Amino acid sequence: MSAPRIASLVPSATQTLVALGLGPCLVARTGFCIHPAEAVKGVPKVGGTKDVNLAKLKRLAPTHVIVNVDENRRETADALREFVPEVIVTHPSRPEDNLVLFEQLRAAFADQPGVNERAAALAAEFSAALSRCRAADRTGQQVLYLIWRDPWMTVARDTYISAMLAEAGWRTWPDLRGGDHGAGRYPVLVGDESGLQQIDRVLLSSEPYRFGAEHLAEAQALCPQAQVQLVDGELLSWWGARGAAGLDYLRELSGASRCGPAAP
Predict the structure, then answer these.
(1) In a 10 Å sphere around its CB, with 0-12 CB exposed, 13-18 middle and 19+ buried, how is residue 10 labelled?
(2) CA of 174: how far to CAs of 68, 73, 180, in Å?
(3) For residue range 25-65, what is the model confidence (pLDDT) as tens digits?
């Protein structure tokens, strides 16, 4: 039973692989794969999620590469298949897809010590967090989740972030679907859309743009009737091992007794 040589091109996947006990098998990561810091600090970087250094990655001779439909480019995955024995494509788009992800990674690395048990533990932890969230009351608010400014950018309804927020009963605005990949998943706002006047809550994410207290007034002017707050973007957008903590954080944001699935 030889150890796999794994390259992860997705931050969420990198953290999940470490949680599965596969940290010692990591031979490459992106510069955005920063968690858990102690486990990944010695793993070589091969560029970003969108600009992978394929030549460097090839020299590291991975047996497996983890990619994501939303975060990596299709042409990158196609190029990887020319020299990587197994390219594992992930695409969690709803919170419950974390359970599919845990099984996907478990099956890929089931021959490695402890992976089966750790995958089962992650699945149980996530299922418990999802049950806690769905057992409480929903709030039914319309939410604008901002990920960028100049221009303002938000999330489409079929993104993982939007589906996470739906567990608090929060309906993201605008009511658009962006498809499996591409720019349509992150709509750009002009700032004068009439729907902005009906937003109940504006969430300013800490990533990819790091919103801070200095942006609160600007966001408030965008949506005058809304409650505006800063949120931890990692907890709300990173899937896999971070999923359970993200759901518990969402319960705190929306009120401990006011979290549940949104109406379709």
Answers:
(1) buried
(2) 24, 25, 17
(3) 999 999 999 999 999 999 999 999 999 999 999 999 999 99
The count of other CB atoms within 10 Å of the CB of residue 134 is: 14
Cα–Cα distance measured from residue 26 to residue 232, given in angstroms and rounded to the nearest whole number: 27
Beta bridge partners of 119: none
202 near 143, Cβ under 8 Å? yes
CATH number among 3.40.50.1980, 3.30.160.390, 3.30.70.260, 3.30.1330.60, domain 96-264:
3.40.50.1980
Q: Are 154 and 246 in contact (CB under 8 A)?
A: no
The whole-angstrom separation of Cα 165 and Cα 114 is: 33
The pLDDT tens digits of the residues spanning 108-163 come to 999 999 999 999 999 999 999 999 998 877 778 999 999 999 999 999 999 999 99
* Location of each CATH 3.40.50.1980 domain in the chain: 1-91, 96-264
Tens of pLDDT, residues 169-218: 999 999 998 887 777 899 999 999 999 999 999 999 999 999 999 999 99
CA-to-CA distance for 163 and 181, rounded, in angstroms? 16
Contact predicate 68/13, CB 8 Å: yes
Architecture of domain 1-91: 3-Layer(aba) Sandwich (3.40)
Cα-based angle 2, 5, 11 (whole degrees, multiple of 5)? 140
